[in-house]
Amino acid sequence: MDPAIVPAYPTIEDIAMKLEGIRVLDLSLFLPGPMLTQMMADHGAEVIKLEPPGAGEPNRDIDLKRDGLSVFFANTHRGKKSIQLDLKTDQGREIAHQLAEQSDVMVESFRPGVVDRLGVGYEQIRERSPQIVYCSISAFGQTGPYVRRPAHDLATEALAGTLSVNLGQDGRPAMPAIANADILSSMMALSGILMALLRRRETGKGDYIDMAMMDALMAAIPNNMGTVLAEKRPPVAKDERPWGGNAMYGIYETSDGKWIVLGAAEMHFAENVLTKLGRPDLVEICKPPPGRNQEPVRQFFRETFKLRTQAEWIDFFDGIDAAFAPVQTLREAVDDPQVRARDMILTDERGWEHIGVPIKFRDEPGLPSFDLPGLGQHTEEIVRGLGYEAAQIIKLKEDGVF
């Protein structure tokens, strides 16, 4: 079997993983929370997804589908169990509390105040479950003037200022290619959860993590805040080092309408590239600072790179010590030999492709299970595990708890 092909239903009983024995109760929806908890599931945690009544997790129906299952859902919910409860009922809340008593981590991503109204906020949960590591992910956090303000990724990026420097060729703010606020808050929250679990080994107590997407964005740009913090002014993006102010760090069009990049501005790279292109006289201009002074080099690159196709430039740069790369489409990237060598695209027994596991341990690697839970598939199984008898389960169903 190809090493990149993983069975659809792997057997993990004899495989040790880092988070084996950790149970996660996941109330989160959309992207940040589900991505976080899938990372934990990939590394052995038991993740119980508590879905709301009705259609459940919204990303079940977002994006293209394969056999009725969305690609989005398949890449955020593999290996999880699904329980569907109505937390507006007394019994639904009670079951959630009982699950929290048997869990190590609880994750939610509602607007601040919602979980408290549902009776499953941190203060309510920790009364019975002092061991719980409880993580709330929201756009702006649990404090501050924006606490009640609705927002997803784009509005958060706009308010955090990062969208103002995410500019297209026309100099206007452009739609981000990555949901930066979602992804960064997800991974920072994962770090916080793991820190809290590590500390709990000493104290026996859990903790509360207030993860704001806007906070994550602000923390993620230390390399781009020079003018902001030193000169108290917004940057002029096109003149700044990371956003095109340096000629050796930019995106250039080729003759076939495709693109290439020069991605490193160190002077030895500039010397290598410009000497090969027959313009060593321009090397001196590549010295810091970046900005308008480097326009002659940028203009030379713009004119020169439009003389050949992307493929021709790939051949030209073969063997040159420079951080050159073609701008690949997402499909080209998925098929890139580096991506395949790192098992970042996996194929299951159905022939479906999935995003792989980015955190790679040598001794206890993650093992993704491509078993995707049906909506509420494990509700009765999990409730039975809490000690409920068959007659009680029937009554709960009659009462609309699930």
Summarize the topology:
Blueprint: E1 23-26, H1 32-42, E2 46-51, E3 65-66, E4 69-70, H2 71-74, E5 81-84, H3 90-101, E6 105-108, H4 114-118, H5 122-126, E7 133-138, H6 153-160, H7 180-203, E8 207-212, H8 213-219, H9 226-230, E9 249-253, E10 259-263, H10 267-276, H11 295-305, H12 310-317, E11 324-326, H13 330-334, H14 337-341, E12 345-347, E13 353-355, H15 379-385, H16 390-398
Parallel strand pairs: 1-2, 1-6, 2-5, 6-7, 7-8
Antiparallel strand pairs: 3-4, 9-10, 10-11, 12-13
Helix pairs in contact: 1-7, 6-8, 7-8
Q: Can you give keywords for this protein?
A:
elongated, single chain, Rossmann fold, alpha/beta, 3-stranded antiparallel sheet, formyl-coa transferase, domain 3, about 15% strand, disordered N terminus, 2 domains
- Terminal CA distance reads 41 Å
Rg over CA atoms, rounded to whole Å, is 25 Å
List the domain count as a whole number.
2
- Low-pLDDT runs: 1-12
Overall geometry comes to elongated
- The overall pLDDT average reads 94
In DSSP terms, counting alpha (H) and pi (I) runs of 4 or more, how many helices?
Answer: 16
CATH homologous superfamily of the largest domain? Answer: Crotonobetainyl-coa:carnitine coa-transferase, domain 1
Query: How many strand units?
Result: 13
Reading off the top of the CATH hierarchy, the class of the largest domain is best stated as: Alpha Beta
Enumerate the strands of the largest sheet in spatial order, edge to edge or round the barrel: 5-2-1-6-7-8
Give the proportion of residues in helices: 25-40%
Please identify, by name, the CATH architecture of the largest domain: 3-Layer(aba) Sandwich
Largest sheet: 6 strands, parallel
- Report the structural category: alpha/beta
Give the ordered list of helices and strands: EHEEEHEHEHHEHHEHHEEHHHEHHEEHH
